[in-house]
Amino acid sequence: MPPPAIVVPPGAATIEVAMRWSDMDAYGHVNNVQYLRYLEEARVYAFHLWFGQERSLLEDGVLVARTEIDYLAPMTFNYQPALVRLWCSAISGASFDISYVVGQVGTDVTYAQAESTLVTYDLTAARPRRIVDHERQAMESVLGEPLLLRSHKERRREH
Amino acid sequence: MPPPAIVVPPGAATIEVAMRWSDMDAYGHVNNVQYLRYLEEARVYAFHLWFGQERSLLEDGVLVARTEIDYLAPMTFNYQPALVRLWCSAISGASFDISYVVGQVGTDVTYAQAESTLVTYDLTAARPRRIVDHERQAMESVLGEPLLLRSHKERRREH
Amino acid sequence: MPPPAIVVPPGAATIEVAMRWSDMDAYGHVNNVQYLRYLEEARVYAFHLWFGQERSLLEDGVLVARTEIDYLAPMTFNYQPALVRLWCSAISGASFDISYVVGQVGTDVTYAQAESTLVTYDLTAARPRRIVDHERQAMESVLGEPLLLRSHKERRREH
Amino acid sequence: MPPPAIVVPPGAATIEVAMRWSDMDAYGHVNNVQYLRYLEEARVYAFHLWFGQERSLLEDGVLVARTEIDYLAPMTFNYQPALVRLWCSAISGASFDISYVVGQVGTDVTYAQAESTLVTYDLTAARPRRIVDHERQAMESVLGEPLLLRSHKERRREH
Question: Which residue, A155, B120, C106, D44, has fewest beta-carbon neighbours within 10 Å?
Answer without folding.
Answer: C106
